């Protein structure tokens, strides 16, 4: 018990000291092994391997376990870790629940396909683990609600993997918008060009012996194995994700919710086409949202505003006094016809991030929610789910923001959740 108390005291003191620096961009220190955060990584494809590299590079973190349903991913991740930490004694798992049973694991990262995000996180919360989870937050609206309820019940920490949130550009955009430099914002245009790949025809076959396909499907509807549905391409099937739109929404909508916190969504209207091939997510999708005194438009084609066509993703804020256009790393402000990339009279007012993963580590130590916390991430993610529902039904929908349900529309409300496959309903 004395060791645990000393460890808690060290974690709180070290993080409090780090967070007291007003515009910290990064730091390193030597940390005693007994005072390091023990982290397990669940889902080790492309983004999961990035999680592994990021956290392995933090001196306050010990990578304690790796988990994947594909033995080839697991072996590759172990090799990567051994290259970074030759003396590691990390344990390997194919079932993430065995990791959650371990009392010595403090936190997990989750980079599974979207349809597993909520179950992994909620079971981790129930097991007393904190979670760094990849975007999108969840597969459905109801899952996000369950995640927030569970996090609060078990007093856990959660960070959504919107790594761009930590960058200086988003911080500065938020400062400028909040300062009123372009006036009250009445319209925001978001865009992300790009159609899904044309997949197929389906090559149905026995799954590889190295992959537990039944577990991979988990709560999703059963399907015979075909390589076109698995791993990276899963995002182009509505059984598991929502395509390019769902993949990129959080990256660019994040700066909007951070800057102006849209309130009281009332209507959602989407149009678009289904992708070609065996995938069934949008080939293109345009969505119009009406909030209190604010319109937000998502388009697959860049809007007809100066500078948008040259950016592969972007946000365009229209205010009473001017406009601000931004992507991940750049911004352009137009006030009274004068173009600039900054407003020097707007002071720095938001503490800079120590790094997205370091922010999570600090939050775990101090027991304070991080920048991309679950409550914030859920509000930012929810309109994306509603846009997909409007697209699937092909009509405008009316939303009750207080009750978080559609008004007088049972068909639309049925799509706020789905029944899990028998035997895989664990939450």
TrEMBL record:
Domain Gfo/Idh/MocA-like oxidoreductase bacterial type C-terminal: 205-425
UniProt-listed PANTHER family: BCDNA.GH03377, OXIDOREDUCTASE FAMILY PROTEIN
A Pfam family recorded for this sequence: GFO_IDH_MocA_C2
Domain Gfo/Idh/MocA-like oxidoreductase N-terminal: residue ranges: 37-161
GO molecular function: nucleotide binding
Protein name according to UniProt: Gfo/Idh/MocA family oxidoreductase
